[in-house]
Amino acid sequence: MTLYLFYFLSFLAIFSALLVVFSKNPVYSVLYLIITFFAIAGHYILLDAQFLAVVHVIVYAGAIMVLFLYVIMLLNLNQESEPHKSTLLKVAAVASSGLLLTVLIGALRGVSQVVPKTGGPEIGLVKNLGQVLFNEFLFPFEVSSILLLAAMVGVVMVGKDEEKI
Amino acid sequence: MKIPIEYYIWLSTVLFTIGVLGVLFRRNAIIIFACIELMLNAVNLLMVAFSSYHNDANGQVFVFFIMAVAAAEVAVGLAILVMMYRNTKSVDIDILNRLKG
Questions:
Q1: How many Å apart are CA A25 and CA A77, to the nearest integer?
Q2: What share of chain A is helix, strand, coil (3-state, %, to 5)?
């Protein structure tokens, strides 16, 4: 049963990822990416990372993709104004990424010596994650707040209209 | 039934390669950005898989930080893109390939 769910979510993720790349309209690409993110969140729930699945949906599908859609609508991009690379470059792109896939899968051939799954389903709950986050990762947690502040300041400075300074 | 770890490694590899294909294939800078996010998510999936298989919560906490950094990066990158669109009226990377204004 878990295996069928895994196959369904995997094929959904791979299929929508391919549609992200090959879809002509940029709005459709972003929507397919949202479907991919939901499939990956389903995988997180299968892997006992329940809190991370919800955070993933909220942050990625709820904030980052909405930002993408805002920018696409602001720039008013649609299918007719979409530029394309020449066919030779497209074939070269597909060939290069096919070679990369071959190299990576060839390099990861004999990796089944990992220990079998030992974790229980409570590893991804908020309490356990919170204990690890605030005991061992306290300093990166505080520093990431400074990172977000810097990003906010940077975005406002870059996006400012120049006549109104 | 436990899903073997190789399945997750292969799924993450395929998603990462599709992200690389998207960066090479498209000319629209926003879709290239979206494919970079796809690559980050493939890596996130692999880290969560290993965290679950080794019963170690460090992997999931690291995915947290990757998500925070990705959110900041998307905000800054899209702001730069909007600024470049204001200057050159295009998001085609073949036109944006010169550093001099």
A1: 8
A2: 75, 0, 25
Distance from CA of A165 to the nearest CA of B (A): 15
Fold of B5-88: Helix Hairpins (1.10.287)
Does A72 lie in the same domain as A127?
A: no
**Residue B84 C-alpha, separation from nearest chain A C-alpha, in angstroms:** 10
The answer to whether residues A72 and A137 belong to one domain is: no
Contact check, Cβ <8 Å, B75/A96: no
What chain A residue is nearest to B64 in terms of C-alpha separation?
Answer: A52
Q: What is the CATH number of the domain that holds A30?
A: 1.20.120.1200
Tens of pLDDT, residue by residue over A91-142, are 999 999 999 999 999 988 876 666 666 666 677 788 888 888 888 899 999 9
Distance, CA of A116 to CA of B55 (rounded, Å): 10
Tell me the CA distances in angstroms from A142 to A14, A146, B12, B56, B57, one per residue in order: 35, 7, 30, 22, 19
* B82 dihedral zone (left: phi>0; alpha: psi -120 to 50; beta): alpha
Residue A119 has a pLDDT of 63
Task: Flag if A30 and B63 touch (Cβ within 8 Å).
Answer: no
Residue A101 lies in a domain: no
ipTM of the complex as predicted: 0.91
Domain boundary among A79, A114, A143: A79
